[in-house]
Each structure stands twice: as C-alpha cells, then as structure tokens.
Amino acid sequence: MQLTPASGMTVLSANPQHQDQVCCSHTSMFPTTWYLRAAQPGDFSITVNMKGQWSSDSRVKYDVTNTTTIQVLQQVQNPNLTISVSPTIAPTQSDVTITGQLIGAASPTTVTLYLTRPDNSTISTQVTTDSHGGYSYTFKPERVGVWQAQTHWEGHGGSAIESFIVKIPTSLLIVAYPNQATYGTTISVWGNLQNSANYTGIGNKLITITYTVDNSTWTTLTTAETTSNGRYRETWMPDAGVYWLMASFPGDFQAIESSSSQVQLIVTKDSSLLTIDPITATRAGETVNITGTLTSSRGNPLPSKTIELTALYEGSTSWTYLATVTTDEEGLFTYPAWVMQGNATLRATWSGDPNHLGQTTNQTVTLMKIPTTTSIQLSPSQIEANNPVNITGQAQDGDGNPINGTINLQYSMGSDQWVDIGTATTNSSGYYLYTWTPTAEGSYTVRASYQTTAIYASSASQANLTVTQSPLGKIIDIFTKDRFLGTLMTVAIIVIVVAILAAVFLIKPKRSDGEPEDQQTQ
After folding, report:
1. Cα 300 versus chain centre, distance
2. Span 429-445, pLDDT tens digits
3. pLDDT tens readout for residues 373-404
4. Number of domains the chain contains
5. 3-state secondary structure 342-366
6. Do residues 378 and 463 share a domain?
7. pLDDT of the residue at 478
8. Strand, helix or coil at 467?
9. 8-state DSSP, 277
10. H or E stretch at 97
11. In this structure, what are the phi and psi dihedrals at residue 143, rounded to the nearest 5 degrees?
C-alpha cells in the first residue's frame, strides 16, 4: 500500500508502516493511519494505491487506486484566548483537565471546546468563563492515541491547539518460583502485564527483569516479551545468595510505563559428595595410589576444586598431612605417592565454595602384615632341676630377612595353660637369648612367640624340655615319701646339729671368770 500526497503536503508518519509491505490477508484487513501536514490552506488531493497477490493463490490479484480531496482551512488564532492540558500523558478513563483564559472579554462568556479523538472524530462542548475570564473542563478520554484540544470564541477565532496522549494504564506482576531453593535449581521467573482498567492482558510488550543483592545496584537479568494474553516467562539458575527481583515496563506509544513490586529469592548452598575409592591391602613401605571423586548433590562433577589429604596412623593422636590435590573436569582426584607406615584412617577434606557446602570423608586403611617365622632351641634339652637352660632362636620375615621385636617365652606342663617365663628382644640379626632355671622336674613344652606389630604378623614355635631330679633331691624324695624314714631322718638331723653346737661350745677356752677366752696365735 502506498500513499501519494498532493504538492504542499508532507507525510509526518504512518502507523503501522505498511508501505510496499504485505498488510493484510484474504480474510482480514488492517487499518493504516497516515499523519499529514499542509503548508497552507486549500484543497489537496491524496492518492492511495493498493497492490497485492495472495500467496496461496497466484490467480487472485488486485491493483486498486483511490483518490480523495482534503480541504485545509485557515486557522484564525486569537492571542487573547489561552489553553492548556493537564496531564499531557494520561491513562484511559482517567481525568484530563483543560483550562484557559479569555482575556479582555466580559464575563461570563461562553466558549466552545473542541476535542479531536485519535481517529479524527470530534466532540464539542460549551464552557462558560468565570468572573476572571478563566474556564476549566475535565473529562475522561476513552480512546488510546493522540488527542487535540482547542477552544473557540464565536466570531473571534480560536486558541492554539494543545495535544495530549492517552495510553493504556498498566500493572505488572512478577513471581519467582520456587522462592527458596538450593544452588543448581532452575528458577522460573514469570508474570503478566495487564490493562489496569479492565484487567486484560497486554501482548507484544518488552519486560525488563532486574535483580539486586545489596538493595543498591540493580542488574538486568533479561528482557522478555509478553504473549498475546500479556504473560511472560524466563528461567534462571542463580548463584547462592539472597536476591530481590523486579520487573519493569518502559511504556510505549500505546501503554503507560509500570513496575512490579519486589519479590525475594533465597538460594542456599548445595551439598557436595566427596568419596575415596577403596584402597586394596598393601604392605608397609609400599606406595599407595589414592583416588576419589567430588560431585554436587545432583551428581554433577565439580572441577578445579582443592582437596586436602591427611592420615591418622594407628596409635597417634595427630593427623599427618599427605598432599593437596585438584579435581579434573570429571571431578576426579588422584595422589599416587602415599607410602604407608601402618594402619591408618585416611581423610579427604574439601572446604567448599560460594555455591557448595564443604565435605569431609574418611576411610580406614589396614595394612597387609608381613608374615614372620620364629625358631626356638633349648640347650641342653634335658637337665636336672635347678640348673639353667639357654633358650635361643631367630625371628625372620617371609623372605628370610631378620626382624627386630619382642619374643614372649612361656612353658606348659601337659595342659592348656601357659605360664610366662619372660621376654627377650631380638638383635639386628633377629637372634634372641634367654637363660631360664626350672625348679621342678617334669616334661616341659617351651614356646617362643613373636608379637605382632603394625607391620609384621605374629608367629610362634616350641620345643620340649625334660627336667630330672638331682641326687640330693632323690634322697630327700625317698625320705619324704616314707613316713618312718622321714621321721628318722628328721631326728638324725636334729642330733647332728645339737652335737655340732655342743662341740663348738666345749672346745672354746674359758677365762678365769668362767667366760671362754679368745685363742691367740702363737
């Protein structure tokens, strides 16, 4: 569609801009408004040409030209008749007040107020000036667009023309759902733009969504366009924090600007999952490879995070620092250089970040102890009671290497009860020596046990020892077993002791006073 104005007329604007564009379909037509200005009064011809072709049926075409004549009259403006409009931008169905003054005329005087709607239709009303020549008229415009107001005093010309714009009143809503969530949750930010006069949605309008975390600086989140029913919706995955959100509509030639109220959104830190892969049994002194994974509660890997590894060894009260490692893109970490020195609790610690809570995890690691052998020899293996026997032997690992440690020595005399003899300590060659004197006759089983350590397993071996009585013991045993011989032996011993004491007393010289004298060496 194309408009050709006559000479002396200027096209100010068109709404919408349909020149040389598809403007309609075979089922509907869209009106087009042109705004023109004439340089001087007179008659002007305007030609409109419409050409078209239905895209669905190339046989249907049209080429229509229409011409019309517009008469532009000379405006006579009376400088003594003033006019003003307030407000100059107003919502539909709200008060617009037109005021002015007629200067130098008797009061009261009737003036005519002409109001031109956006579609160029006109309404008029009579207004009477007050004692000072002033006049006022208030009305509620019902149509959206540019209005014009002018007053006329019969026979004396008119006032200047004042324009004002009537727009759709709007209200704007914003909702954040959910309004409390953990990091990683997708937040739906939605709302609607309505005509606040009749609560119908306003479509095809741009809504700006902003947020603040400090109630001072506002940051634009996004711009969304309303649907035909005035709704808009966006999604957002914010960092952890406390947010205030607001939606705003800047207004346009049809609708008045508006802003929503502020809504609060609280996003808390997400939890994390830190794991250490199971460690297979190993021997002391061997290198262990530590691996593990760090993810969010949803299982998403957390890359480039720092993990601290420490160990608490068995019998210790303080943690030993091992290393600090960093997770890769898959959230995996590894440390291949842990040399174990004993049973330990392995700990991995992550302190967290702005969006995730920290995490600590432990794993108990038990060494596979080195097997040992312990030998024992008795020298001699048969002795009389109250005579010493040397207990010797050697402690070795499974490869025959000597080991240091404590050897527990015990004996048993045909029962399951073991009696402690003592302990021996191996030397650098793994040998030990202990001397023991058994006091009772009998058959002994002597056992040497190597005590387990954090590194080595326990082991034991045993040997047999025969202890017999001494000759004196045999004699004593004969007499103690026969009651008569035992009594006779006891009396004999008493007689012998008394005889020895008497002899000592009689042999010793006596002094003149009856006391024995000390013998002097000649």
Report:
1. 11
2. 999 999 999 998 999 99
3. 999 999 999 999 999 999 999 999 988 999 98
4. 5
5. CCEEEEEEECCECCECCEEEEEEEC
6. yes
7. 59
8. strand
9. P
10. strand 96-101
11. -115, 150
Q: What is the pTM of this model?
A: 0.60
> Which DSSP letter does residue 280 get?
P
Residues 6+ apart with CB under 8 A from 318: 312
Last residue of a domain, one of 240, 268, 296: 268
Give the position of tokens 């013991």: 473
Query: Which of 195-209, 437-451, 496-510 shows the lowest mean pLDDT across its residues?
Result: 496-510
CA distances from 43 to 6, 73, 119, 295 (A): 9, 9, 21, 81
Place of tokens 């011993």: 493
Instruction: Judge whether 189 and 233 are in contact, CB under 8 Å.
Output: yes
Long-range contacts of 226-229 (CB under 8 A, 24+ apart): 226/192, 226/193, 226/201, 226/202, 227/201, 227/203, 228/201, 228/203, 228/204, 229/192, 229/201, 229/203
Query: Six-digit token pair at 130?
Result: 């007050």
Cα–Cα distance between 128 and 449 in angstroms, integer?
128
For residue range 33-57, what is the model confidence (pLDDT) as tens digits?
Answer: 555 666 666 777 777 776 655 444 5
User: What 3-state DSSP class applies to 465?
Assistant: strand
Given 268, 300, 316, the domain boundary residue is 268
* Residue 106 dihedral angles phi and psi, to the nearest 5°: -70, 150
